[in-house]
Amino acid sequence: AAAALTPFTVTRRIGHPYQNRTPPKRKKPRTSFSRVQICELEKRFHRQKYLASAERAALAKSLKMTDAQVKTWFQNRRTKWRRQTAEEREAERQQASRLMLQLQHDAFQKSLNESMQPDPLCLHNSSLFALQNLQPWEEESAKMPPVTSLV
């Protein structure tokens, strides 16, 4: 009776779903290059960021490396180079930004400290003369010179 209620039989899986697949290939151990090989690779990279296949093959042969090793080394080195240059550009950008802020601050402070040139219209009108000499950014303790009418 129970079989009639279920139109298909459910088979339960035992273990992990990927357990029955072929085992993964073992990861190749990291290749260690000699200091001479690294030095030659770095010198070449400094001169040339990309190698043609013939250049890569010749370099690999001269360094007793495989073509794939040289290719992979250059790919990894270009990635490192891009990251380093991006970090350097960001540091330069931040330094330039700080410099600009400092220059703006200095210019603003200088403009606050400079005495304003009297406006000819203000010289002949005591109210305008008083307004022109009003500097609200100065501290309360700073004594303002008395306003004298030139009229």
- The separation of the N and C termini measures 118 Å
Total DSSP E strands: 0
- The succession of helices and strands, N to C, reads HHHHHH
CATH class bucket of the domain at 33-131: Mainly Alpha
Tally of individual helices = 6
| CATH architecture group name of the domain at 33-131 | Orthogonal Bundle
Provide an overview of this structure.
The protein has 151 residues and is mostly helical. The chain contains six helices and no strands. It has helices at residues 2-5, 35-47, 53-62, 67-113, 120-123, 126-133. The longest helix is centred in the middle third of the chain and has 47 residues, at 67-113. It is elongated.
Which features does this protein show?
single chain; 151 residues; 6 helices; elongated
How do you describe this structure in short?
With 151 residues, the chain is mainly α.
What's the topology here?
Elements lengths: L1 H4 L29 H13 L5 H10 L4 H47 L6 H4 L2 H8 L18
Helix pairs in contact: 3-4
Keywords: Developmental protein, DNA-binding, Homeobox, Nucleus
Subcellular location: Nucleus
InterPro entries: HD, HD_metazoa, Homeobox_CS, Homeodomain-like_sf, TLX1/2/3
